[in-house]
TrEMBL record:
Residues 1-14 have a biased composition (Polar residues). Belongs to the thioesterase PaaI family. InterPro entries: HotDog_dom_sf, PAAI_dom, Thioestr_dom. Residues 72-147 form the Thioesterase domain. CDD domains: PaaI_thioesterase (cd03443). PANTHER family: 1,4-DIHYDROXY-2-NAPHTHOYL-COA THIOESTERASE 1. Residues 1-21 are annotated as: Disordered. Keywords: Hydrolase. This is Uncharacterized protein (TIGR00369 family). It comes from the Bacteria. Pfam families: 4HBT.
Amino acid sequence: MSDNFTSQPAQSSAHPFAEQLSSHGVPEGMWPFLSDHGVGTLVQKLGIVFTDFAVDRLCATMPVQGNTQVRGILHGGASAALAETLGSFAAALHGAGKANPVGVDLNITHHRAGRAGLVSAVCTPLHLGRRSTTHEIVISDEDGKRVATARITNMLLPVEP
């Protein structure tokens, strides 16, 4: 599958969120589509950093520390937010600036506790249509053990002029 954003010419460092986007691993080809809000404040708060950014495979990491629940393990809501972030960015890549993704369904199964270090998430497409996308997101701990599995469906709304 092609990469609709990272193959575009590099953008100027005058972007209002250049430092933020760079520190979260977002390729410069995607920056023009993030000029209003950057990666969003939740991505910053959770410490999500993208490591692979393509239509057919989108990956990121997130620290367990700072994203825990009362028992000191990774919060299920943080895992869900990581999954939704990847699925939404992947849908945006597929939309190639012509459609905006809007999440319509997210489900997540938690398999084991994330206890320390970083969790890694790999997002792959299950369906890439004209009006909707569905992605699977697998979240693993540093030992490669599956922490959670999620599926997200996004509706693609046409960009209004």
